[in-house]
């Protein structure tokens, strides 16, 4: 099958950047390996080399322009970027996916279902500018699916929540309808909730899924790398490995959007920097007293705000340190060269 650039998700946003380097060959990144990228163009898939920087600065879904030997010349400005603070103790950002239109947030209707976790993923979607669709999987194994749908739906007005059995073709069609031809979706969620099972249904592929597990929340990771796949309806889908923890990064606006009820109430507080604690005329505390706002929700907003601030500050510090170190190394090399009269 011959695909055009627009079939691959190309748009005027990327075409305008291509105009600055018209001889560059456009590729969409379908996989990121340690030493190379895999790119897809209308001519098919090809391995691509990066000009020196680590491949971790690229994300699945990115658009790049290469020279004729497959070496990347430019990374095109993204329309959206999903990122988190990487797992472990290091203060680094991990890119999850780029140029995503729809974020499918998968959670099963059982032990994995957790409202604060859904709020985290919603903040990620809003921060990146993706349309969030909550997909509650394993509806066939649950007696009370409707109550899960209602709880998730109450997180935001007009939030799209689907309850599906990822093994049922009719349910898969429901999910497909949210990401039509030319658009890109990404699937995120804990390990074992059924992301790959859903991806297989949406793409018609047969990627590895795991055997039945008793508890999704403690599943082993079956999918180990992110990859871009073409869906049956001509859309694109990025399956991702299950996340044990989504640590937000640079997501303050996204958090505020998820908690827009609190942000809106704050506008009526007497002080513009009100901490919603003991200040007089605090509209947020008034809403709690009137039973309009759940105090647990205020606590969750505070927690995510604090965490995002901490993560963003430590990653920013680490970036600044790396930059200063790079500058020092370049300075030393330059001095050595000048001494040798090069
Ligand atoms: N009954 C039922 N089983 C499901 C459903 N979705 C997934 N499963 C099963 O749940 C198990 C885990 O599914 P996977 O698709 O591998 O889960 P995953 O989210 O991709 O897991 P990781 O790759 O580890 O992140 C498999 O045995 C699936 O067959 C569903 O809607 N209903
Ligand atoms: Mg998987």
The separation of the N and C termini measures 54 Å
Q: Mind telling me the CATH superfamily name of the domain at 93-239?
A: P-loop containing nucleotide triphosphate hydrolases
> What's the CATH architecture name of the domain at 93-239?
3-Layer(aba) Sandwich
Strand content: 15-25%
Task: Identify every distinct bound molecule in the structure, by name, code or SMILES.
Answer: guanosine-5'-triphosphate, magnesium ion
Classify the helix fraction into a percent range: 25-40%
Q: Please describe the biggest sheet, giving its number of strands, its sense, and whether it closes into a barrel.
A: 6 strands, mixed
Alpha plus pi helix count:
9
Rg from alpha-carbon coordinates: 22 Å
Low-confidence stretches: none
Number of extended strands: 13
Short characterization:
The chain has 342 residues and is of the alpha/beta class. The protein contains nine helices and 13 strands. Strand 6 and strand 7 form a beta hairpin.
Give your account of this protein's structure.
Among the domains are: 64 residues, Beta Barrel (OB fold (Dihydrolipoamide Acetyltransferase, E2P)); 147 residues, Rossmann fold, CATH 3.40.50. It has a six-stranded mixed beta sheet, sandwiched between helices. A five-stranded antiparallel beta sheet has the order 3-2-1-4-5, with no helix packed on it. The chain has a two-stranded antiparallel sheet with strand order 6-7. The relative contact order is 0.11. The mean pLDDT is 91. It is α/β, with parallel strands linked by helices and 342 residues long. The radius of gyration is 22 Å and the shape is globular. Guanosine-5'-triphosphate binds next to α5.
């Amino acid at each position: 099958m011959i695909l055009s650039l627009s079939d691959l998700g190309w748009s005027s946003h990327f075409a305008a950047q291509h105009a600055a380097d018209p001889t560059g060959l456009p590729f969409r990144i379908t996989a990121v390996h340690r030493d190379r990228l895999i790119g897809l163009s209308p001519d098919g898939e090809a391995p691509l080399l990066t000009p020196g920087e680590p491949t971790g600065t690229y994300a699945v879904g990115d658009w790049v322009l290469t020279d004729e030997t497959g070496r990347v010349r430019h990374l095109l400005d993204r329309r959206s970027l999903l990122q988190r603070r990487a797992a472990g103790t290091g203060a680094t950002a991990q890119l999850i996916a780029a140029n995503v239109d729809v974020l499918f947030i998968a959670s099963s209707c059982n032990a994995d279902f957790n409202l604060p976790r859904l709020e985290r993923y919603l903040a990620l979607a809003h921060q990146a500018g993706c349309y969030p669709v909550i997909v509650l999987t394993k509806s066939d194994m649950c007696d009370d699916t409707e109550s899960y749908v209602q709880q998730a739906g109450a997180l935001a007005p007009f939030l799209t929540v689907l309850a599906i059995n990822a093994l049922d073709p009719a349910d898969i069609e429901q999910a497909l309808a949210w990401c039509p031809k030319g658009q890109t979706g990404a699937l995120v969620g804990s390990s074992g909730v059924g992301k790959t099972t859903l991806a297989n249904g949406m793409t018609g592929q047969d990627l590895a899924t795991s055997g039945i597990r008793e508890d999704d929340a403690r599943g082993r990771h079956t999918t180990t790398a992110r990859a871009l796949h073409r869906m049956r309806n001509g859309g694109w889908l990025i399956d991702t490995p299950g996340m044990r923890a989504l640590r937000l990064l640079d997501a303050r606006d996204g958090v505020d959007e998820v908690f827009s009820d609190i942000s809106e109430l704050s506008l009526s507080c007497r002080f513009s920097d009100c901490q919603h604690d003991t200040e007089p005329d605090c509209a947020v505390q008034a809403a709690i007293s009137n039973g309009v706002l759940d105090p647990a929700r205020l606590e969750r907003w505070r927690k995510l705000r604090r965490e995002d601030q901490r993560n963003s500050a430590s990653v920013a510090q680490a970036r600044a340190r790396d930059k200063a170190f790079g500058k020092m190394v370049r300075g030393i090399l330059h001095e050595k060269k000048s001494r040798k009269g090069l």
